[in-house]
Design a protein that fits this description.
3 helices; mainly beta; 15-stranded mixed β-sheet; 266 residues; homotetramer
């Protein structure tokens, strides 16, 4: 009997890119608030999801250093299970509820890509860096303190897709004042057989379910963000027309389930 | 209207990991014939596919340097569309027809991964190298000539999964005497919503359809192949118990369609 | 006038792999104490450096996540200036003084390689990972606490060169009880012109000078370490015959100078 | 007795990044003729080397896919010894002789970096791709034939440094009509000890000696080349003001020696 949550299936399930949940995550995050062209944002949304009229085109660009573990001691195998990610979250509504929608996301690890696709995150490979906070004091330590500066970058196939900088000003006591929307995604898997190339067998609107979500050590500050045009990509269409605050924090949660909000194939 | 064959969908379809076929491929290939434990091979086969009783456990391990182009000048953007791959092909039968089945495959490019998943190739990321033949004469040129030596290697997350060497002896005029089986795969996409975690929405046996298949400049020779045990992988279960001949050749084809042989979800 | 500390020199000095000191560093470190074959260790030492007779063949294998900054805001450009490293330190003496000598070191960044060569660190490229401590609580967080488990790995050209695991037991108040030796290196640059191929123009014994050295948050615990034999490498000759304790800590210092202990070309 | 041409020295010399010559090379190459700002080119030249007054600011930008072998069967270990490179060659003169001078060069392999530094090539790490010619016929094959299109790209730390395209028009029978200058370089190794930070121990003008140089299958065509400005780099200062022809060819040679033209430390 073959085992595994994703391909490749194998007798013991070790070869699978990812095993069944629970999936546990902890991360360091840098997020930049910005506003983009509303028409460009709206074009990215799936049926039934509309731009949040109260947000005026607000989005957040995130950089994340992730550590993952499942139930097989993955935490001690960082070569396979530690990874970096960058994504955009667009403020939208679904059935009147404020949500974030993720149109673009990049990651440097194939297990994360497989887990992401199964949830609805449209992951591609990218190279992601963010300045880290180190405990040992130094001009190189980037402590969580007023004045500390952080940089973030995303590159795809050797082209710079996004560059950000944040300078901390103040600690924010209640993270829910900044981050308080659930995330919806489009879970999508195509059909290559010719008669079905326009009818994907999987095309759903999904809602991320995050157990034990924690956001810690949240700091705010000033920010810069650029999303240049790159040949063969379209993310620059939602480049900043205005940049807001920058944030630096830790985030953790576990995943065991997914909610399907809508089946577009029905 | 959002465009794209795979995620991420975008207004112009440029961001998609891969666009609609036709997909055109040309490659340099090194393949090593070997025999593995028959029980271990049989365990990898999906329902209805059985080990070819006439093959006695024969498989081929391939290394491929690929160049891809679609309809958007991808050939001149090698940073995104040139890639390397390694896989195993197991000799099996389906409905009495001799086929190859692909249980493990590794690639260094996300567009190739997305195209592969849509066909049924269970691709993971890997780092693949093979000795190339260069035109300019040198001890470093590896010409297609008797005595020339080639090496191949596959690494996954910094661990060596396969190492091969081939030394050429003779040109083979008719490639069909060596490579003559169609390839079948298991197209599989899981469900994360808890109630469906054991019922994948996509689970099919598929048949690769290759237009204008050409195999050129086929040489045979002696071969070595090792597939060591690596933590968190199972490919060593089908490591060689005996190694046969090695082959070096070019291969090209186009993909526009896929045949679905069996729907395991029905 | 061309500028730059290392090649390539350029009019403004921006292209140089590294500029003039000061160089500021902060890191997270995992180090494993072990004992190796004394003859194998002794063979690696340069003239005048002898194995510390009181150490009985003791060495440490380190994994380091580094952040670097110079005087040009490098801290906000982590794609270029954040990097990972692994090395061996062998307990030796020079002129009767206890020192560490570094025979093997691997890094994933070219600026770090250029700085290292200029000091005497014989750096090669490698891929290095270590489990990180994250602030947000999770099974994936690896806190600095009794029972926490960390892994480390070094790969070179897709082959695993070292794998380590540490499980924390206790905080160590005084880091000098564990780490208290200065580091000596062999600064070496060869001559390719035929008449001088056996007479390197630079061949010196050097002493690392570290300003403002700090070691913080030092924890000890149990450890595992393997250094397998890899084709084309010799580090396995100093593989563990016995493994001692494992350590997890932060370290920072600045570099502005280097002491030359001995000129072997004289 | 420690062995090895470069660091790290080891008892058997296997760990060394590179062993003593002979070094044998074969490559596929794409080169674009262009003209840059003469003042910007002249600023890069070392003492005694002057811009060739008859060249009017001509330079060539090269992309190279290399295969290397020494005397230890390196050809069958492509994971370590196959690599890609990109560089600029500026037309200059030294003592009245027409030469090429190499101010910038990027490579994706540490052994190539070590060999390069020992010759005087100021190598940094980069990611290099060029379209390849494959034998199996396909829209993806890029044959050596009129109309075939090739692309090349160089990225450094995730930023695109150069992008080129060539479309072939005609075969060139005599390569010496295009490529006929020897290459001179600046061999340079710095001193970190404070008193000597402005007095590098190695600072020489060198001449590349290439045994058995062969250029084969040379085709010419039309070309495009862009060298954008990238933060922390200066290569854009010699970006094209005009682009000439593009070339595609194979090249091989061996290295056993180096000629030192001038010692700048004297």
């Amino acid at each position: 009997m073959l085992q595994g949550f994703s391909v490749p299936l194998s007798p013991e399930g070790k070869s699978s890119l990812t095993n069944l949940p629970p999936w546990h995550y902890s991360s360091d995050c840098m997020a930049i608030e910005y506003w983009a062209d509303k028409q460009a944002l709206a074009e990215l949304l799936p049926p039934g999801v509309i731009l949040d009229p109260s947000s005026d085109g607000r989005a957040f660009f995130w950089f994340l250093d992730w550590q993952f573990t499942g139930s097989n001691d993955e935490i001690t195998d960082p070569a396979r299970y530690q990874y970096r990610e960058a994504f955009v979250m667009v403020e939208a509504t679904f059935d009147g509820t404020p949500v974030n929608y993720c149109p673009y996301i990049f990651v440097d690890n194939d297990a994360a890509m497989a887990r992401g696709w199964s949830q609805g995150y449209p992951k591609k490979l990218g190279t992601v860096f963010q300045t880290r906070t180190f405990a040992a004091p130094s001009a190189a330590a980037a402590p969580l303190a007023p004045g500390s500066r952080f940089g973030g970058s995303l590159s795809v196939h050797g082209e710079r897709m996004a560059t950000a900088r944040v300078q901390l000003t103040d600690k924010i006591e209640d993270p829910r004042t900044v981050f308080n929307r659930p995330t919806v995604m489009r879970r999508y898997f195509p059909q290559l057989a010719k008669a079905g190339q326009s009818r994907p067998p999987v095309d759903e609107l999904t809602l991320s379910l995050t157990d034990d979500l924690a956001i810690v050590d949240l700091w705010g500050g000033s920010a810069e963000l650029t999303i240049p045009e790159v040949f063969g990509e379209e993310m620059h269409r939602i480049a900043p027309v205005r940049v807001g605050r920058g944030f630096r924090f830790g985030m953790s949660y576990s995943v065991t389930d997914l909610k399907i909000l809508k089946d577009y194939t029905a």
